[in-house]
Amino acid sequence: MLLVALTCGGCATANRSPKWFEPAHFPSSGARVHLTVLGDLQSLLPNFEPTTGLEEFLYGPGDAVAPILRNPQGMAFADGRLLVCDQGRTDIVSLDLRTGKIGSWIKQSDKRPRCPVDIAGDDAGRVYVADTTLKVVLVYGPMGDYVEQLKPDGAFRPGSVLVHNEMLYIGDLASQVVRRWHLVERRWLSPLTAAGSGPRMVAPTGLCTTNDGTLLIADAVAGVVFRFSADKKWLPPIGGPGRGEGQFVRPKQVCVTNGGLICVTDAARQSVQIFDRDGRFVVELHERSSNWRGWTLPMGLTSLGSAEWADLTRNPKLSGLSVPDDLLIVSDSLGLPSLVVLGVYNAGGNDAKIGG
Fold first, then answer.
1. Which CATH number describes the domain made up of 2-345?
2. What is this structure's pTM?
3. DSSP code of residue 108
4. Phi, psi dihedral angles at 38 (to 5 degrees)
5. 206, 252 contact by CB (below 8 A)
6. For 38-73, how does the pLDDT look when each residue is reduced to its tens digit (9 = 90+)?
């Protein structure tokens, strides 16, 4: 399989002429995975004109400058849009992947989060935002309208959220557990905390599930990714504290591709590490002085299908490249570009071509 990285220069106005990026390659040992940095996300999106000529004649000029991401954190993909928690704007920013339009997603200015760090959506279109300053989970409707807030009794500081099988999982940094809110029954269930003789759960900052229903919990302080199986058993964690291959310093978020690869952002290592479905280290993507400056503070991580991107690529230097089977987006909270896209190619490649 092959992993490909694409980057976004802060998601400024799409009218700015892009500077095409020359692809840079990152082969892994054993040739199981190959990483290639392809360019910035802005060069993949279609041109977006905020105000048409007729609208400008009738109503005057519209907003010429789109909001630029400042400190992007967690992300979620919903209905063709990328929703990004932005601490610097105390807002949820919406990026329409079909048009390139970017703007504030939340309708009521007085209902915006103060410190949004993670976001997740359910099948009904509701969106859940973990706010570490307000110490609640804010709930919004499909169009960004405020619904309610969730907060259990006692100490609570949500650092991550995940929706899976009618359950809202919340990484609680205050109580050092994973909270569970049943979306249908609307009640709190007993929280999850790592059991056994292994590392203790301290800071659950990232949550996701594997294809077989195993819950993955990235712990930024314990330096591991905990695993809780669908049959309610704690499995050996992935990784461990350190700077060696497959180890973590500050793992922030975790995501699983459709093909089963486990991907983890590590803010302190300034990298993304990739593991197979059994938790074995595959490859790490980080700075390469010769052709890519890497991340400054990689935080958020989300997955989407390649269909949303196959017809959006505008960088002429990518023409003829195989279309990825899976894609990941990584947010860089302090660096530019602020969004980096990783394309995943399964073994055997894809016959479809970008621009072909």
1. 2.120.10.30
2. 0.89
3. -
4. -105, -25
5. yes
6. 666 666 666 555 555 554 555 555 444 455 789 999
